[in-house]
């Protein structure tokens, strides 16, 4: 597979980029070099390689869900700019 100047022009149009003719040629060469390098991966023997989603073994660390006391309402409302009926009052967003 190779990238043509037409492909570069198409992607540039989608990205709303205006490229000079030199830039089109430059990007065509660079993208083809990337694809050529990626094709080398096809030469590797991966038959005995287990599929992975990450190179490191990562596990979610979850804590137990346990009840804990909340902050007292008086302490919470001390930081509120305005309060009403033990609730934080915010400006209306709907008319």
Automatic annotation (TrEMBL):
Gene3D superfamilies: Glu-tRNAGln amidotransferase C subunit, N-terminal domain (1.10.20.60). The keyword Ion transport does not apply. Transmembrane segments: none annotated. The gene is gatC. It comes from Paenibacillus selenitireducens. This is Aspartyl/glutamyl-tRNA(Asn/Gln) amidotransferase subunit C. The keyword Disulfide bond does not apply. It is an enzyme of class 6 (ligase). It catalyses: L-aspartyl-tRNA(Asn) + L-glutamine + ATP + H2O = L-asparaginyl-tRNA(Asn) + L-glutamate + ADP + phosphate + 2 H(+); L-glutamyl-tRNA(Gln) + L-glutamine + ATP + H2O = L-glutaminyl-tRNA(Gln) + L-glutamate + ADP + phosphate + H(+). Its EC number is 6.3.5.-. Heterotrimer of A, B and C subunits. It holds the Pfam family GatC. GO terms for molecular function: asparaginyl-tRNA synthase (glutamine-hydrolyzing) activity; ATP binding; glutaminyl-tRNA synthase (glutamine-hydrolyzing) activity; transferase activity. One of its GO terms (biological process) is translation. Allows the formation of correctly charged Asn-tRNA(Asn) or Gln-tRNA(Gln) through the transamidation of misacylated Asp-tRNA(Asn) or Glu-tRNA(Gln) in organisms which lack either or both of asparaginyl-tRNA or glutaminyl-tRNA synthetases. The reaction takes place in the presence of glutamine and ATP through an activated phospho-Asp-tRNA(Asn) or phospho-Glu-tRNA(Gln). InterPro entries: Asp/Glu-ADT_sf_sub_c, GatC. HAMAP family: GatC. Keywords: ATP-binding, Ligase, Nucleotide-binding, Protein biosynthesis, Transferase. Belongs to the GatC family.
């Amino acid at each position: 597979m190779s990238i043509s100047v037409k492909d570069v022009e198409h992607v540039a149009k989608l990205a709303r980029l205006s490229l000079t003719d030199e830039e089109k040629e430059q990007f065509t060469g660079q993208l083809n070099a990337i694809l050529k390098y990626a094709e080398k991966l096809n030469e590797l023997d991966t038959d005995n390689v287990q599929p992975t989603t990450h190179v490191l073994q990562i596990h979610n660390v979850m804590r137990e869900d346990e009840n804990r006391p909340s902050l007292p309402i008086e302490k919470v409302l001390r930081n509120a700019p305005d309060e009403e009926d033990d609730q934080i009052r915010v400006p209306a967003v709907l008319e």
